[in-house]
Amino acid sequence: MPAVRGTRSTQSERASARPGPLVAPAASLTDSAAARAQRQITLPGFGEEAQRRLAGASVLVVGAGGLGCASAPYLAGAGVGRIGLLDDDLVELSNLHRQVTHRTSDVGRTKVDALAESVRALDPAVSVVRHRERLTAENALERFAEYDLVLDGSDNFATRYLTNDAAELSGTPLVWGAILQYSGQVGVAWHAHGPGYRDLFPVPPPAESVLNCAVGGVLPGLCGTVGSLMATEALKLITGIGDPLIGRVLLYDALAARTRELHVRRDPAAAPVTELIDYERFCGTTKSAPAAHALGADAADFAEELRGGAAIRVIDVRTAQEFAERRVGSATRIGVDRIESGDLAGDGGGGVDAPIRVYCERDPRSIRAAEALASQGFTDVRFVRGGIAQLARIAPELIVRAADGPSSAGDSEGDA
């Protein structure tokens, strides 16, 4: 996880973070809508006016995976009039244990289409807008302008920073959630009334330290818990009831069945958000572009080159600490920032036609380095797919570890 800033909240601070209703009430409810919502209209402090606010509201759900599958049906069931679903992914069999609105028959379909059908089956009167696309810096502000509120159920830091910044620039309230393994988080970033995601996480974590659900796993019910909490926060913001999680983050530990609260204040030293940036680069990851994949070399092929004594230049783009713990014996450590700055363009290490193999712990930093070197004119450059982690699994004899003795390979300054 990235570095977190937080303290305990006070009752007066919570009261100051309580804005009024986000959405004006619709003129009236249909008889069917009133009958559907009868059990919540009778709630103390709710009433028919709050229900009409929901009917007049529009909510964009970013991500149609575990959190989107949990939150979107509750938004529809509660009576939100218009729901946008944004995702470019397809349903896979491994999704179904936690993304429970998708069915086995949906495998191979777009998640947006599968989730939209589930929402419409729950309430055909709900207007469902399908955005079969990935949220990017190019389309985020346009999409946010179409909705009153955004729920971010994405599964990566780049999108979370993007939704935060787009919400700040557009003045849109944002409910965000995150899950991994046995724990989850929920917060609200409404910059007119309190801090945002960047105040909690000023900088993203190192790319190589980030697990995702495919690697780290996730408890299925956790998606339902966090997704329904996100939907509840959205309903509170739309109607103006209760205390929304503005300036607070709810942390949920499923194994211990415990929650705790983290209070977040604005970071007075934070630079203002003035534009949307390249969030993949900001988070140290890279887009899965075809050009990047073309620069890849299988770890097994790389191992054969090393075993055969091929005249290749091996560059390790990890940190000095990672390099000291384990490395390829013939590698020189050169940080990604130095490579991207063009310092190697005039390097005499064999010329631009000499073969270069770049590796990191897994992939992201080595892809960046390989792309940079290729753009600088190096003609035979490849990143090692799976990085040293994969190489250590298939060819452990090629790895030098800290216990094997001091490093004798070159070490050039410049970390990623």
TrEMBL record:
Positions of the UniProt region annotated as Disordered? 1-24
Gene3D superfamilies named in the record: NAD(P)-binding Rossmann-like Domain, Rhodanese-like domain
Residues spanning the membrane: none
User: Coiled coil: is it a keyword of this entry?
Assistant: no
The Rhodanese domain extends over 308-400
Q: Which PANTHER family match?
A: ADENYLYLTRANSFERASE AND SULFURTRANSFERASE MOCS3 (PTHR10953:SF102), UBIQUITIN-ACTIVATING ENZYME E1 (PTHR10953)
Protein name listed in UniProt: Adenylyltransferase and sulfurtransferase
What lineage, starting at the top, does this entry show? Bacteria, Bacillati, Actinomycetota, Actinomycetes, Micrococcales
Record's GO cellular component, any one? cytosol
Question: By its UniProt entry, which PROSITE patterns does this protein fall under?
Answer: RHODANESE_3
Q: Give the SUPFAM superfamilies listed for this entry.
A: Activating enzymes of the ubiquitin-like proteins, Rhodanese/Cell cycle control phosphatase
Keywords of this entry: ATP-binding, Nucleotide-binding, Nucleotidyltransferase, Transferase
UniProt-recorded Gene Ontology molecular function terms: ATP binding; nucleotidyltransferase activity; sulfotransferase activity; thiosulfate-cyanide sulfurtransferase activity; ubiquitin-like modifier activating enzyme activity
The superkingdom of the source organism is Bacteria
UniProt key word Membrane: no
